[in-house]
Design goal:
The chain is an all-alpha fold. It has a domain of 30 residues. The chain contains two helices and no strands. 0% of the residues are buried.
């Protein structure tokens, strides 16, 4: 408990737990499936890295104002 009586704050996203579960699951697989699971995990991590890179590039770009086209009313 903290000084104010509340439990300590924990991170919302604990990567170490996810890694532990993935490693345990991978080691539980038969050897013939282990290499395929490793490849699938590698592909998933590459896709996640690409998604993070794309999002970071988007954050670095200045905000664009939407283009508004004037339409004459008659």
């Amino acid at each position: 408990m903290n000084e104010d009586g509340r439990p300590p704050r924990t991170p919302l996203f604990d990567l170490s737990l996810i890694v532990y579960v993935l490693e345990a699951a991978r080691h539980a697989l038969p050897p013939e499936l282990r290499s395929r699971a490793t490849e699938a995990l590698r592909d998933l991590l590459r896709a996640l890295r690409d998604l993070i890179d794309w999002y970071l590039e988007r954050l670095d770009q200045p905000q664009r104002k939407p283009q508004v086209e004037e339409i004459p009313l008659e």
